C-alpha cells in the first residue's frame, strides 16, 4: 500500500539486510530501519518496531535467515529460533513461521542453506500478501451486501491496527475495506484509538489517510454508544491467535467491542490468514497473554508545539498500572471469520471443513 503516494511492503531483503518500516516512529516520522542480525530481529519484534501477527511471523522468518547468514552452525540457528519464539508470546504466527523455517532447513548443511532460508522467508511473506488480498476479496462481499441494502456510506468500526502495517501488505481487517474503496463503495471507518500504544490512531488512521479513506479516531470507550445510535454497520478486527474452537485472541479491548456489538445486533467479523489459527490449544485460558511494561500506560509520546517528539508521564508518580496486551472474544460473539479461503462460522466444525 502507499505512503506519500509510494508503494511499500512492510518488510523486504536488500543488500544483505532486512529492511523494515520502524513503526515506533509512526505517524510523526517515517524511518526505514536496517535489521542486520537475528538479535536485531528479536529486538524489533520485542520493542514493536514491527508488530501485528502476520508481520511478526514474516520478521521471525527473516530473523532465521539472518541467523544463517551470520553463522550457519546448527546449534546457533536452533538457539536463535528459540529466542525468536520467545520475543513475544501471544501471536501464534511467530512460532508458526519459525517452525516452518526450521522444517525447511532441517538436514541441509550445504552452501545453499542461506539461499534456501532467504527463499523460504520471502515465500512466507509473499504467501501472507496473497492471503491478505484474498481476505479482502472475500470480505468485500459483506461490505457490498450492506451497501446494496443501505445505499449509503458503510460505517465500519475497527480496533487496534490489523492494517497493511500489521501484515506484509493489504492487512487483514483493512483488506476488505481497501477492496471496497477501490470498487467505489463509500466507506467510513471508526478507528478505536487503542490505548495504551494507540495503534489505531498512530497506524490505522495513518494508513487509511494515505489511501484516502475517510476515518474518524474515537476513544476506546466510544464504540458502544455509536452502536446504540445505529452509527456502526459492522465491526472488523484482526486476531493474534484464533483457536480451533473459534475463540479469538486479539488486542485488549476487542472483547468489550464484541459484547457491545452483540447487544446491538451489529455484525462482528474477525479477519485472519490461516497462519493465525492455533490447532493445539482448545481452552482459551491457556493462551499466553502478554503483559507489557506499565510505562506504556503511564507515559505517552507525541509531538510538541515545536514539532519535536516528546515523551511525558501522565499518571501520578506513585500509582501502579497494569498493561495486559490481549484479550479473548468467545466464538459466540463472532458473526464470522473472514479467511483467505472464504467466510466461515467461528466454530470447530466450520474451521475444520475450511482448512483440514
Ligand atoms: O500488539 P500488536 O500491535 O502487535 O497487536 C496487533 C493486533 O492485535 C492485531 O489486531 C493482530 O495482530 C492482527 S494483525 C493483522
Give short descriptive properties of this protein.
about 350 residues; alpha/beta; 7-stranded mixed beta sheet; 11 helices; about 40% helix; binds 5-S-methyl-1-O-phosphono-5-thio-D-ribulose
Helix fraction, binned, reads: 25-40%
Regions with little confidence, pLDDT below 50 for 5+ residues: none
Rg result: 20 Å
What compounds sit in this structure?
A: 5-S-methyl-1-O-phosphono-5-thio-D-ribulose
Structural class per helix/strand content? alpha/beta
Share of β-strand residues? 15-25%
Largest sheet: 7 strands, mixed
The best one-word shape is globular
Count of DSSP helices? 11
Number of extended strands: 18
Mean pLDDT: 98
Distance between the termini: 32 Å
H/E series, N to C? Answer: EEEEEHHHHHEHEHEHEEEHEEHEEEEEH
The main sheet orders its strands as 8-7-6-9-12-17-18
Explain this structure.
The protein is an alpha/beta fold. The chain is 39% helix and 19% strand. It is built from 11 helices and 18 strands. It has helices at residues 38-46, 53-70, 74-85, 93-105, 113-150, 174-182, 199-210, 223-228, 254-263, 295-298, 348-355, and strands at residues 2-3, 6-7, 11-14, 17-21, 32-35, 154-158, 187-192, 215-218, 234-237, 241-243, 248-251, 268-271, 277-278, 299-303, 309-313, 326-329, 336-338, 343-344. Strands 8-7-6-9-12-17-18 form a 7-stranded mixed sheet, with helices on both faces. Strand 10 and strand 11 (248-251) form a beta hairpin. The radius of gyration is 20 Å and the shape is globular. It starts with a strand and ends with a helix. 46% of the residues are buried. The mean pLDDT is 98. It binds 5-S-methyl-1-O-phosphono-5-thio-D-ribulose (MRU). 5-S-methyl-1-O-phosphono-5-thio-D-ribulose binds next to helix 2 and strand 11.
Amino acid at each position: 500500500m502507499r505512503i506519500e503516494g509510494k508503494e511499500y511492503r512492510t518488510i523486504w531483503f536488500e543488500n544483505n539486510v532486512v529492511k523494515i518500516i520502524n513503526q515506533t516512529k509512526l505517524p510523526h516520522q517515517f524511518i526505514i530501519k536496517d535489521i542486520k542480525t537475528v538479535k536485531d530481529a528479536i529486538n524489533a519484534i520485542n520493542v514493536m518496531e514491527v508488530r501485528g501477527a502476520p508481520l511478526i511471523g514474516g520478521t521471525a522468518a527473516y530473523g532465521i535467515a539472518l541467523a544463517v547468514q551470520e553463522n550457519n552452525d546448527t546449534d546457533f540457528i536452533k538457539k536463535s529460533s528459540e529466542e525468536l519464539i520467545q520475543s513475544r508470546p501471544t501471536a501464534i504466527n511467530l512460532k508458526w513461521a519459525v517452525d516452518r523455517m526450521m522444517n525447511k532447513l532441517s538436514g541441509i548443511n550445504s552452501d545453499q542453506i542461506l539461499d534456501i532460508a532467504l527463499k523460504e522467508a520471502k515465500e512466507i511473506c509473499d504467501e501472507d500478501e496473497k492471503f491478505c488480498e484474498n481476505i479482502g476479496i472475500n470480505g468485500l462481499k459483506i461490505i457490498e451486501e450492506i451497501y446494496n441494502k443501505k445505499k449509503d456510506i458503510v460505517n465500519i468500526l475497527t480496533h487496534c491496527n490489523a492494517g497493511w502495517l500489521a501484515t506484509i501488505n493489504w492487512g487483514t481487517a483493512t483488506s476488505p475495506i481497501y477492496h471496497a474503496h477501490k470498487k467505489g463503495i463509500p466507506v467510513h471507518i471508526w478507528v478505536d484509538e487503542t490505548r495504551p500504544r494507540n495503534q489505531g490512531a498512530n497506524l490505522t488512521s495513518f494508513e487509511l489517510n494515505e489511501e484516502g479513506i475517510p476515518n474518524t479516531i474515537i476513544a476506546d470507550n466510544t464504540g458502544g454508544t455509536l452502536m446504540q445510535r445505529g452509527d456502526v454497520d459492522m465491526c472488523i478486527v484482526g486476531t493474534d491467535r484464533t483457536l480451533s474452537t473459534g475463540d479469538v485472541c486479539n488486542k485488549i479491548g476487542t472483547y468489550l467491542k464484541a459484547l457491545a456489538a452483540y447487544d446491538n445486533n451489529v455484525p462482528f467479523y474477525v479477519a485472519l490468514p490461516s497462519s493465525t489459527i492455533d490447532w493445539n490449544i482448545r481452552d482459551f485460558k491457556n493462551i499466553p497473554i502478554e503483559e507489557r511494561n506499565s510505562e506504556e500506560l503511564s507515559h505517552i509520546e507525541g509531538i510538541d508545539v515545536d514539532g519535536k517528539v516528546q515523551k511525558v508521564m501522565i499518571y501520578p508518580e506513585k500509582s501502579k498500572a497494569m498493561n495486559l496486551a490481549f484479550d479473548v472474544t468467545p466464538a459466540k460473539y463472532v458473526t464470522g471469520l473472514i479467511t483467505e479461503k472464504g467466510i466461515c462460522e467461528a466454530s470447530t466444525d466450520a474451521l475444520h471443513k475450511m482448512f483440514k
